[in-house]
Amino acid sequence: MLDLDRLRALNAIAEYGSVSAAAEILGITTSAVSQQIAKLERETSSQLLERSGRGVRLTDAGQLLVNHADRILTLVAEAEADLEAQRGRVIGHLRVAAFATALRGLLPHVLRDLAERYPQLDVQLFERDPRVALPHVQRGEFDLAMVQGWRNSPLPIPDGLEELHLLDDPAEIVLPAEHPLVGRPWLALAELAEERWIGSPPGDICHTWLVDSLRHGGVEPRVAHYASEYPTQLTLVAAGFGIALLPRLGQGAPHPGVVTLPVRPGLARHLYVVWRSEATRRPAVQAVVAALRRAVDTVEAMQAACAPLSNPGSAK
Q1: Domains (ranges, CATH) in the chain?
Q2: DSSP annotation string for the chain
Q3: What rounded mean pLDDT belongs to the chain?
Q4: Could you report the per-residue pLDDT of 147-187, keeping only the tens digit for each?
């Protein structure tokens, strides 16, 4: 009888082209993946992989097995969802992907909430870019994912996935505390044409959004420095090396040395949670969705309470 974990390992190698990439996706070591494949080859009395440059490729027997494995794993996921729905209990193991600011700003609240309510539910978090997370959810490698899309740069949700809008996260101009524009109630992007910007690296979804937003506002961006993490961008702004356009959730706690101002017309990103349609019946999936809704309420209340402290310019 074929082992499902070994089929998952072979499926991941077929998708990502190497043992190391499969190991990263599955959350295990490369040695464990290699062992799974070796056992699967003994079970099937077939060579399933062969070396190809620095990676591996499927043999004919491996490709034949992968064709069946995809269908088998889909049927198993549907059966597990049906059984879990019938039991009606929030138990088991879930893999949840989220982009960096959601992982930092929302998911700790979710984990604490779920641990108190459902001690038999184990939730494992993975930081993933939304564009990477979506196909993983489609294939069942993640049970849910937090993703984002901007009004001027929406993120298409593939067929077969359910989505729930959680919140709109407004973007704000972040200035050094001594900047001459501090004290204004709001700013238009066109007023910032001569500024130097701190932004995410090229290729990042947030870099694309920043460049598109500035150009739509009549500004050709001059990005002085690139940093993936928003806290690093805030530190660079505070040091006077440029200004930034950051979503409120990404800013975290009020940062000394910077002032945030609303931008007009407003910009906001949409935050969603997505999951496979057949998983809707799973009580554990719905428990995570409900916990995310509660976490959003908590974070929005905290942001409202901190707004006067983080934006002294708005009070003038």
Answers
A1: 4-85 (1.10.10.10), 91-166+271-304 (3.40.190.10), 168-269 (3.40.190.10)
A2: ---HHHHHHHHHHHHHSSHHHHHHHHTS-HHHHHHHHHHHHHHHTS--EEEETTEEEE-HHHHHHHHHHHHHHHHHHHHHHHHHHHHT---EEEEEEE-HHHHHHTHHHHHHHHHHH-TTEEEEEEE--HHHHHHHHHTTSSSEEEEEEETTB--PPPTTEEEEEEEEEEEEEEEETT-TTTT-S-B-GGGGTT--EEEPPTTSHHHHHHHHHHHHTT----EEEE-SSHHHHHHHHHTTS-BEEEEHHHH-SPPTTEEEEEBSS--EEEEEEEEEGGGGG-HHHHHHHHHHHHHHHHHHHHHHHHHHHH-GGGG-
A3: 86
A4: 998 776 778 888 889 999 999 999 999 999 999 999 999 99
